[in-house]
Amino acid sequence: MKATVPITLPGLRKTCSQCNLFELCIPFGINNSDIPRLDELVCMQRKIKRQQPLYRTNDSFEAIYAIRTGSFKTDVLLEDGREQVTGFQMTGEILGLDGIGTEVHTCNAIALEDSEVCVISYTKLEELARVIEGLQHQFHKVMSREIVRDHGVMMLLGSMRAEERLAAFLLNMSQRFAARGFSATEFYLRMTREEIGSYLGLKLETVSRAFSHFQEEGLIFVQQKHIRILKSDGLRKLILHQASMR
Amino acid sequence: MKATVPITLPGLRKTCSQCNLFELCIPFGINNSDIPRLDELVCMQRKIKRQQPLYRTNDSFEAIYAIRTGSFKTDVLLEDGREQVTGFQMTGEILGLDGIGTEVHTCNAIALEDSEVCVISYTKLEELARVIEGLQHQFHKVMSREIVRDHGVMMLLGSMRAEERLAAFLLNMSQRFAARGFSATEFYLRMTREEIGSYLGLKLETVSRAFSHFQEEGLIFVQQKHIRILKSDGLRKLILHQASMR
DNA sequence: CGTATCCTTGATTCGCTTCAACATTAGTGG
DNA sequence: CCACTAATGTTGAAGCGAATCAAGGATACG
Predict the structure, then answer these.
(1) Bases in strand C with any atom closer than 7 Å to a protein CB
(2) Cβ distance of A84 and B159 shorter than 8 Å
(3) Which pLDDT tens digits describe chain A residue by residue (246 residues)?
(4) Phi and psi (nearest 5°) for B170?
């Protein structure tokens, strides 16, 4: 199912220069004089229904995507059926960077809710990046931050125990919601326990138990996917205070 | 492992255009006509003694590094002392990409043996990348592959069991040695059991036991850091054949 | 409103960690 | 060059944290 719908309302809702996600996205840090040229970048927008893929492993790589509305997960599937969720992405974040190296995508990007992305032709991006210095630099920053983020996840998976991982996950989500102008203490998680578990290297039951335990401790209030953080520094302490296990 | 030492005659030993690690490194894929210009890239070389850092967390970011001889590990330290090794790097591979996003390095890069790196000024690289299209693209590829590699590690840490992780690690090392013209079946590991363990999210004892078990099974011959792979497809089967656990 | 999906909780099992002792290798200085 | 010592690696026994198995409950969606 391919739903590559271009902008609908006439004239309205231009591209980068009018986008409110500006400072989270690729165009950040570009000189005012160059901003109009950015609008060349986004050749179209595309709507993805919940549970549908934006791209799949082995799809040929042509564009990267900036999330305009909604959210996604990326995952890698092993031949024997095992799934590893490698990340959750929110508005303003970039998808598809995995494809540059091999010319094909190396993971699946699945919408967690009905979503909309800006399609950024990679060829065009490279072209513009050669002309607009700020764009080049910002793009490199986005890639670099992705690498750093991944190192954080490796830390999580490699040397934290179950409850520490979940605490780190919640704090990370909280911080990212806050960066988008939403509440840092109360939010709705679009992913299932199983997806959280896969991301954190845990089984869904363990995730569920950890949620319940945090609630018993008065750290959070949780009801299904609704989360309210009551003691964020309690969660923070959890991460650093516990003795090493692995 | 004896590194492929380049010509040492004085004056000689230029930079990229004469380097035998060419096709593993940044300059790969650049038009012949542009190759001479690459030599501007490497402003100097630097020697790092075993156990010494090439850079440390919070060092200000100025350059990226291509390994000319030797090998490194990168690691992230948590405040409570826990260490997570995020990667092992061999000749021709690039270090320092983590620093672009934040202008400071976010991990430590430590030499596993006496090593030598080419220092690539990041400013210069951006400049040249704007002029040499192939360089720009190759640089993006290097970053993208780093992201993909990290996803592989997340898969490893998140959904494989101990022996699968070690098998995947050995096959990966084997493949990388082979790509550098060394034996794929017999090599010397520069890192300790503890470092392997940290990388794989395991304790050193578990790594040691897994090595011993592989030997009992006739899959490898192991004596301390010397490894000989006897049945590489046996190791491969191990990764995919075992039932899921996590 | 019914049904599939998702979540919670309990009991049991198992893989890896932890603790401990010893073996081997590498590095140092007399 | 060898004795000495620290660092690294191996192996065994016991404990624990998370997985597995299982059942019931809540929620969302068509």
Answers:
(1) 6-11, 15-20, 24-26
(2) yes
(3) 444 444 444 333 467 777 877 767 877 777 778 777 777 788 788 999 999 999 999 999 999 999 999 999 999 998 888 899 999 999 999 999 999 999 999 999 999 999 999 999 999 999 999 999 989 999 999 999 999 999 999 999 999 999 999 999 999 999 999 999 999 999 999 999 999 999 999 999 999 999 999 999 999 999 999 999 999 999 999 998 654 444
(4) -65, -45
